[in-house]
Specification:
Chain A: It is an enzyme of class 2 (transferase). The complex is a heterodimer of chains A (about 475) and B (about 325). Chain A has about 475 residues and is an alpha+beta fold. In chain A, about 30% of the residues lie in helices and about 25% in strands. The longest helix of chain A is centred in the last third of the chain and has 17 residues. Chain A starts with a strand and ends in a 7-residue tail after the last helix. Chain B contains twelve helices and 14 strands. Chain B has two domains: about 180 residues, Thiamin diphosphate (ThDP)-binding fold, Pyr/PP domains (Rossmann fold, 3-Layer(aba) Sandwich), CATH 3.40.50; about 130 residues, Rossmann fold, CATH 3.40.50.920. Classes of the chains: A alpha+beta (about 475), B alpha/beta (about 325).
Chain lengths: ~475, ~325
């Protein structure tokens, strides 16, 4: 049957468009995806690629005339078919955009009254044949407007398995109301069975009688709708609505403080690779010989970072307009990821603690952070922060300085790497740390020196046990 | 009940029929003094003598033709091909004489005979000896095509084949001659055109036959571990085909996978898919998939052959797909 081609919405804000130029004429065979017209929108002139295939029976709209989105512009069908049978001038209810805007739909009816003059068709036999073949190949592709088997009108063929169609039919359910879980959103038997279990989703006519909202349970999943884009088989992708999640207090705090930090603190980032073979061995030996806790590599990093801070007091500081405050104590905050957010409880006096004590503290803070049993005073007071994402396989990253501190150490994964030493390639366990710091407090060179100290401590880690 | 290998069930079927009907005789390469290339005719020469157990030269066209002539004259030959791959040499005899003489002579002559032997790929036999012939023969009106996967089916169907009034292609498997199973001592016949549900289930119908049966059963076992219950239908008789059994199962499960030896284009697998979509369209929840050879001549190299043969893992992947599991 003949298909009415309507003016497409080519941009989000497009209300109306002008056919700048027709690229087809009456009698042409059109393939799906073929450019059939240049259309001027509010933004630009764009090529209109046909959603439909068929022979051009009629061009409804002349070039240069402004039309509302959804207005009929052409009719495709089989050669010899009566274009007016498709009802081109009188827009039908199945075209949703027109149904939305009845006042605009009246306009194209006038436009349709003066069809474009058909141009001569100097077409070779071969071209016609080739076009026919491709048109035949496209034939099963969905039509923008088609009529369902029972004569009810739908917006496009909904992908559904045959048994799903039959079940929906038998239970008087509308396929369009059922979310498809199969490939490309195909509605499969399980989806229909679920819909049956949920109770009847009445057809539109029945819905009007019973009230619009009664038949859809409020708590049901967003059903998704068919997007305008289609896959290579012409089946629409499923578009689902956005979801707004309320801000938790923790999210609000993170948003406020991170926003403040990025606005106020000029960040500088320096990355240092550190060979961790000895640190890894030391930790293994430590865990074999020391009872009462198991130290992680991160505990070693915290200890080394704290000792290095004692040597570089400027890194353990914060900025005020009246002067830079170098902190007397070293309290290293440890970033702990929670389900929705993170908190940074400090290991207090970390520079003076043993590896064992740091390990015990970190474990305790981490456990109680996840239980949400830390007291407020246990969550504040850090002078520097260590954030480790190595366990996720992150090699290196940049973090944001916590307001009230001058730097945060972003720690990546320890990985086996090929390293050149004395002209030879050797396998080494390497880790990359990035010192992210407030450039107002100190400069790149000071940051580099701090990282050198840190590297020395971690590459010759026995010093950490003194 | 005695436990027999498929080769013994085949021998017993031939022996019983030769004892029952003196018109039945066996002919083929190595069937006599060597007792059969796969020992399916063990002891038959000693028992029946060289007049009824005949060693032929390597001339498939010749002895297939002699068999057809003998059948036209009232005997009931069993012609053994050392493999159905060699039946390609006798294809014209089977296609144009065995299949057509009853039709062309308006029933004046019939061809009541059996062509039997191993079919399809075995293990590293190369491209010319690893082909599945049911796809050629099941295409031809006038022939009946049987493929067996258990000793019980082998005996019951071979006896039916020997007694049939028309030419029957009886397909066995080199790799499955030692498969064991119970075979009743008392006589029984299995009619053609009856599929056998080798494993009941309700989530996915797996249709198979011959060498595909163990593959499908293994895949069904793997699927069961994932809580997917497969119904494995062994067609046994490919022509005539038990369409009703296939359709009844698909109406129950709404999904089907066909597992078989043979290439994807044309052939029995396509035929089954066509019947399902024709007769159970409104019951399908997923496209019907086939698991068969890749569309290539069979390579000799073992690693490549393994990639081409239908495997339980490939069958399981298809089962998952039609069930929309990952």
């Amino acid at each position: 049957m003949a298909t009415v081609v309507t003016l497409p919405r080519l941009s989000d804000t497009m209300e109306e468009g002008v056919i700048a130029k027709w690229r087809i004429k009456v009698g042409d065979k059109v393939k799906r995806g073929q450019v059939i017209a240049d259309i001027e929108t509010d933004k630009a002139t764009m090529e209109f690629e046909s959603f439909d295939a068929g022979t051009v029976l009629k061009l409804v709209t002349p070039e240069g005339e402004a039309l509302p989105v959804g207005a009929p512009i052409a009719v495709f069908g089989q050669p010899g078919e009566n274009p007016d049978a498709a009802g081109a001038p009188a827009p039908k209810a199945e075209q949703p955009e027109q149904a939305d805007k009845p006042e605009k739909a009246a306009e194209p009816a006038k436009a349709a009254a003066k069809p474009v003059e058909p141009r001569p068709q100097p077409e070779s036999q071969d071209e016609v044949k080739a076009a026919e073949v491709s048109a035949a190949a496209e034939a099963p592709a969905p039509k923008a407007t088609s009529t369902g088997p029972e004569g009810q009108v739908d917006r496009g063929r909904i992908p559904a398995s045959p048994v799903a169609r039959r079940l929906a039919r038998e239970h008087d359910l509308e396929l369009a109301q059922i979310q498809g879980s199969g490939p490309h959103g195909r509605v499969v038997k399980a989806d229909v069975e679920q819909a049956i279990a949920k109770g009847p989703t009445a057809r539109p006519a029945a819905a009007a009688a019973t009230g619009p909202s009664e038949h859809v349970p409020a708590a049901s999943l967003p059903p998704g709708s068919h997007a305008a884009e289609v896959d290579e088989y012409g089946r629409p992708y499923i578009s689902r609505p956005d979801r707004t999640v309320k801000l938790s207090q923790m999210r609000k705090t993170i948003a406020k403080r991170m926003g403040q930090a990025k606005r106020e603190i000029p960040h500088i980032y320096l990355t240092m690779p550190i060979v961790m073979d000895k640190a890894v061995a030391l930790r293994a030996e430590f865990n074999l010989s020391v009872d009462g806790t198991k130290a992680s590599l991160n505990d070693l990093v915290i200890l080394a970072a704290a000792r290095a801070l004692r040597k570089h007091p400027r890194v353990n500081a914060y900025y005020t307009d009246n002067g830079i405050v170098e902190r007397g104590d070293v309290h290293v905050g440890v970033a702990v990821a929670l389900d929705d957010g993170l908190i940074v409880p400090p290991v207090r006096f970390a520079d003076q603690k043993t590896l064992k004590q740091i390990s015990i503290d970190v474990r305790d803070l981490g456990t109680r952070a996840k239980e949400k049993t830390l007291k407020p005073e246990e969550l504040t007071g850090s002078t520097f922060t260590v954030s480790n994402l190595g366990m996720f396989g992150i090699e290196e990253f940049c973090a944001i300085v916590n307001p009230g501190e001058a730097a945060i150490l972003a720690v990546g994964a320890v990985q086996d790497e090929a390293v050149v030493e004395d002209g030879k390639i050797v396998a080494r366990k390497r880790m990359r740390v990035t010192l992210c710091s407030d450039h107002r407090v100190f400069d790149g060179a000071e940051s580099a020196k701090y990282l050198q100290t840190l590297r020395k401590l971690l590459e010759s880690p026995l010093a950490l046990l003194t | 009940m005695p436990i027999l290998q498929i080769r013994q069930a085949i021998r017993d079927a031939m022996k019983e029929e030769m004892e029952r009907d003196e018109r039945v005789f066996l002919m083929g390469e190595e069937v006599g003094y060597y007792n059969g290339a796969y020992k399916c005719s063990e002891g038959l020469l000693d028992h029946f003598g060289p007049k009824r157990v005949i060693d032929t030269p390597i001339t498939e066209t010749g002895f297939a033709g002699i068999g057809i002539g003998a059948a036209m004259c009232g005997l009931r030959p069993i012609v053994e091909f050392m493999t159905f791959n060699f039946s390609a040499v006798a294809f014209d005899q089977i296609l144009n004489n065995a299949a057509k003489l009853r039709h062309m002579t308006h029933g004046q002559f019939g061809v009541p005979m059996v062509f039997r032997g191993p079919n399809a790929a075995a293990h590293m036999l190369g491209s010319t000896h690893s082909q599945a012939f049911e796809h050629f023969y099941a295409h031809i009106p006038g022939l009946k095509v049987i493929a067996i996967a258990t000793p019980y089916d082998a005996k019951g169907l071979l006896k039916t084949a020997i007694r049939d009034e028309n030419p029957v292609l009886f397909l066995e498997s080199e790799l499955m001659y030692s498969v064991k199973g119970e075979v009743p001592e008392e006589e029984y016949l299995i009619p053609f055109g009856q599929a056998d549900i080798k494993r009941p289930g309700d989530a996915v119908t797996v249709i198979t036959w011959g060498q595909g049966v163990p593959v499908a059963l293994k895949a069904a076992e793997l699927a069961a571990a994932e809580d997917l219950s497969c119904e494995v239908i062994d067609l046994r008789s490919i022509r005539p085909m038990d369409e009703a059994a296939i359709i009844a199962s698909v109406k129950k499960t709404n999904r089907a996978v066909v597992v078989y030896h043979g290439w994807p284009q044309g052939g029995v697998g396509c035929d089954i898919v066509a019947r399902i979509q024709e007769l159970a369209f409104d019951d399908l929840d997923a496209p019907v998939l086939r698991v068969c050879y890749e569309d290539l001549p069979m390579p000799y190299a073992e690693n490549l052959e393994n990639l081409i043969l239908p495997s339980p893992e490939r069958a399981l992947a298809a089962i998952r797909r039609v069930a929309y599991k990952r």
